[in-house]
């Protein structure tokens, strides 16, 4: 009996893996729109999908990065300047995309644009510190999606939302993790709403990657700028050497940082081209072996492991 059960499980695993490898027939007539193509995941995705034969429309924030991207790619790739937080800019871009794709519609929408914002203890922050990452990562993503959604429905295509392990576990104070938690919720509701239209919606949850978004120097500069304006009481509670001690603590986690950005782009590729795309993709060794498994654990275990990375406060009773 055990042998037959084992054989059935092996067969099911084989069929499941085979199913995941089935690809769409033709990509040379399909259009893909990608936000956040100045650097990082979006830039690599634009260059990769251009080489594969897609008609890529790459949205960049700056003229210089747009020009650099066009110089490295084929004539099929078009760039457009886009600030996802500007509603009028998003509407104009959507109309331009509509004119480009015509009756074919838009096969792929990859919502990749994002910012980290300030990562700091919650009692250091103001509402304004939360506003930027939420405006870009959440409302910008929703705005682009809603404006391009009719074109994706026309093509019965794919929507890929780049979230983060920060959408599964709140690893730091600031607006980044709330924005990514909200992206996860929007992604799930959109996926269910679009199912009847034949549109597949996938969410990618990258772990810690070495990109411009996660530049430790910029993150530290922002934290120090906030420290200067903190009240004497809070400075006394945390202690003058808090930021430096935090940086020393983080040096031990460098081995968890992924440097191969193609791990994320491979997830995008599968979500775009597979006949049976996944609903969620974990990208990066740390995401698969630590963050995602931990997100399913009891809160007491999550708190224990994450608080071990925190610095002991100088005088928390000084309130």
UniProtKB/TrEMBL annotation:
Residues 1-17 form the signal peptide. Keywords: Oxidoreductase, Signal. The keyword Oxidoreductase applies. The lineage of its organism: Eukaryota, Metazoa, Chordata, Craniata, Vertebrata. Gene3D superfamilies: NAD(P)-binding Rossmann-like Domain (3.40.50.720). The keyword Oxidoreductase applies. Belongs to the short-chain dehydrogenases/reductases (SDR) family. It comes from Neomonachus schauinslandi (Hawaiian monk seal). This is Dehydrogenase/reductase SDR family member 9. InterPro entries: NAD(P)-bd_dom_sf, SDR_fam. One of its GO terms (biological process) is steroid metabolic process. GO terms for molecular function: oxidoreductase activity.
């Amino acid at each position: 009996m055990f042998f037959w059960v084992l054989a059935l499980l092996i067969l099911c695993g084989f069929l499941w893996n085979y199913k995941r490898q089935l690809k769409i027939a033709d990509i040379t007539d399909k259009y893909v729109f990608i936000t956040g193509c100045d650097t990082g995941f979006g830039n690599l995705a634009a260059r990769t999908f251009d080489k594969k034969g897609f008609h890529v429309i790459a949205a960049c924030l700056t003229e210089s990065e747009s020009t650099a991207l066009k110089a490295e790619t084929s004539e099929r790739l078009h760039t457009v300047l886009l600030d996802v937080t500007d509603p009028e800019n998003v509407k104009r871009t959507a109309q331009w995309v509509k004119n480009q794709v015509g009756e074919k519609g838009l096969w792929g929408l990859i919502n990749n644009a994002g910012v980290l914002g300030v990562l700091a203890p919650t009692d250091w922050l103001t509402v304004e510190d939360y506003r930027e990452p939420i405006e870009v990562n959440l409302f910008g993503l929703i705005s682009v999606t809603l404006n391009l959604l009719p074109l994706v429905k026309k093509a019965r295509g794919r929507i890929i939302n780049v979230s983060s392990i920060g959408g599964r576990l709140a690893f730091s104070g600031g607006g980044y993790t709330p924005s990514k938690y909200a992206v996860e919720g929007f992604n799930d509701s959109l996926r269910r709403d679009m199912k009847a239209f034949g549109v597949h919606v996938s969410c990618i949850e990258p772990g810690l990657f070495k990109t411009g978004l996660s530049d430790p120097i910029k993150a530290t500069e922002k934290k120090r700028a906030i420290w200067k304006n903190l009240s004497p009481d809070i400075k006394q509670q945390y202690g003058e050497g808090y930021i430096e001690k935090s940086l020393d603590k983080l040096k031990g986690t460098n081995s968890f940082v992924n440097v191969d950005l193609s791990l994320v782009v491979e997830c995008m590729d599968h979500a775009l081209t597979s006949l049976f795309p996944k609903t969620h993709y974990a990208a990066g060794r740390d995401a698969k072996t630590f963050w995602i498994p931990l997100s399913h654990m009891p809160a007491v275990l999550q708190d224990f492991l994450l608080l071990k990375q925190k610095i002991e406060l100088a005088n928390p009773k000084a309130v």
